[in-house]
Each structure stands twice: as structure tokens, then as C-alpha cells.
Design goal:
Layout lengths: L3 H46 L3 E8 L6 E10 L4 E4 L14 E7 L6 E11 L4 E6 L20 E6 L3 H4 L4 E13 L11 H8 L2 E6 L11 E3 L6 E8 L6 H6 L5 E5 H10 L6
Antiparallel strand pairs: 1-2, 1-4, 2-3, 3-6, 4-5, 5-6, 7-8, 7-10, 8-9, 9-12, 10-11, 11-12
Length: 275
């Protein structure tokens, strides 16, 4: 039988245990709140961003196959212009087959396509500004005005492996793992020409993200799910071997994106509001 003092100690122990449980429960709920908010962010962001993402390719009226998907782009500047990578653009269009540069918008059977003109290219930063021919307007995305710090949660939406997966936008999540200087010339093969030496000297800040990107993701918007603003444009992914099979079967998770400040500058040089 417990003495009076023992009962008091036991009672205090129960109170202490109950308080500890309450504290632990509160801490658990607080820990879960950001995860819930993050899940909500990415769901809402995907719905909004994918309305502004297009597949970039060509359409030929007389050739086969009629559609050739080459990369991704996203709508900016009031809905009549598109940003993508310069390397996504075809080197030439086949006049004999009436081939034209096109943006494919929508999903599979419901997709529409719009003819594009090339307004300008920034080969140093691997960017291209395109214009939709005609009166069509699509929902534009907003560019982030400042650099995002390392550790920022990010996502990319694009059309990877378009010829295999079809016309369906796919989103991958990640974080900014590094903000570093890089020259795209340093990662290309070939002889060290005077032009490549110049580009090597003109390195610039890029985002490195721990997201797997695949052929077709070039030109995809890198965005912040919380703000839905574009942080940059996906440019390349490091591969173990420079083959499409290696990029698909053994992705490294090291993807690079050109920051939005260079997108804004390209737009401003061509009479469009960047930010």
C-alpha cells in the first residue's frame, strides 16, 4: 500500500507524463504542418504551371512523321511569347515538306498547335525567345526577380521523352543543391576553338538542382512551388555517357538551369517586360 508521500509523487509523475505527451504531440503537429503545406503548394503549382508549358517541335504537312518533338518551352510576356533553350531549335526547316516550328499545347488528343517565329537567341546563355504567330494568347508565367538560395524547394514541368511518353506534361521535384559558376562550353565536346575559349572565360551563375531531367526537358521552367514563379529554365543534365540511352537509363540527378535574370534580360532587349 502506498504512503501519502508516495501517492503525491506518483500523482506528480502522472501529471509530468501527461504534460510530456502533450508537448510531444504539439511538436509532432508542428513538424507535420510544413509537410502538409508543401504538399498543397506543389499540387496547386502543378495545376497552374502546366497551363503555361508547351512542347516545342516541328510539324510538316508532307513528311513523315508529321510531328517531331524537340523540347519544352513556357509562356511569358502577356501570353504571346515563349522561352526555351537555343539548342532546342531545329538547325533548319525542310521547305519541301512544308515544315514549320510549332508549340504544342494541351494533352494528347486535345492538344492544339501554334506556329512560332524566332524573335531572338542568346547562345551564350542557351536561351531563345519565340513568338506565337497569330492572335492566340496562352496563360503566362511570372519570372522571379531575385536569385533563390541553395536549399530552395523546386520543381520542373516539361515533356521528357515526348516521342515515347506522348504529349503529356510531367513534373519532377527537387531542391537547388548549388548556385555556382558554369560555362556551357566547358561541357561540350570538340576542339578548343577561339569561340569556346571566349565562352569559357565568360562563365556565369547557374542553378544546380538535384532533379532527374531527361531528353525533352530542355526548356522546362524551374519554378518555386510556393510562389509559382519561374526561377530559371532547365538547360542540361550531366550524363555518364553522352548517349540518349545513358540519359534515360542512368540519370545522375545533376541538372543545370539558367536563372531568370538572363531570361528577363533577353526579353528586355526585345522590347518585352521581363519582370
Amino acid at each position: 500500500m502506498l504512503s501519502g508521500d508516495s501517492k503525491k509523487i506518483f500523482s506528480r509523475s502522472n501529471i509530468g507524463a501527461r504534460n510530456l505527451i502533450k508537448i510531444l504531440f504539439c511538436l509532432l503537429m508542428v513538424a507535420l504542418l510544413p509537410a502538409t503545406a508543401s504538399a498543397s503548394d506543389i499540387i496547386d503549382a502543378i495545376k497552374q504551371v502546366r497551363r503555361s508549358v508547351v512542347a516545342i517541335g516541328t510539324y510538316q504537312q508532307l513528311g513523315q512523321p508529321p510531328v517531331r518533338l524537340m523540347g519544352t518551352g513556357f509562356v511569358v510576356a502577356g501570353g504571346g511569347h515563349i522561352i526555351t533553350n537555343a539548342h532546342v531549335l531545329p538547325k533548319a526547316l525542310n521547305a519541301k515538306t512544308q515544315e514549320s516550328l510549332q508549340a504544342f499545347y494541351g494533352i494528347e488528343a486535345d492538344a492544339k498547335h501554334f506556329e512560332l517565329d524566332v524573335v531572338a537567341e542568346d547562345t551564350e546563355h542557351d536561351l531563345a525567345l519565340l513568338r506565337i504567330v497569330g492572335p492566340a494568347k496562352l496563360p503566362p508565367l511570372v519570372l522571379a526577380k531575385s536569385m533563390a538560395p541553395e536549399g530552395t524547394r523546386t520543381a520542373i514541368t516539361g515533356y521528357p521523352l515526348g516521342s515515347l511518353l506522348g504529349l503529356y506534361p510531367i513534373t519532377h521535384e527537387g531542391i537547388i543543391s548549388a548556385v555556382k559558376e558554369r560555362s556551357f562550353a566547358a561541357y561540350s565536346q570538340g576542339q578548343l576553338t577561339a569561340e569556346r575559349v571566349r565562352r569559357l572565360r565568360n562563365s556565369f551563375i547557374v542553378y544546380q538542382i538535384d532533379t532527374n531531367a531527361y531528353p525533352g526537358n530542355s526548356g522546362s521552367p524551374l519554378f518555386d512551388p510556393a510562389t509559382k514563379q519561374v526561377l530559371g529554365v532547365v538547360q542540361s543534365v550531366t550524363v555518364r555517357e553522352k548517349t540518349q540511352a545513358s540519359a534515360i537509363e542512368a540519370p545522375t540527378g545533376f541538372t543545370f538551369a539558367v536563372p531568370s535574370q538572363f531570361i528577363s534580360a533577353l526579353m528586355a532587349r526585345n522590347g518585352l517586360p521581363g519582370y
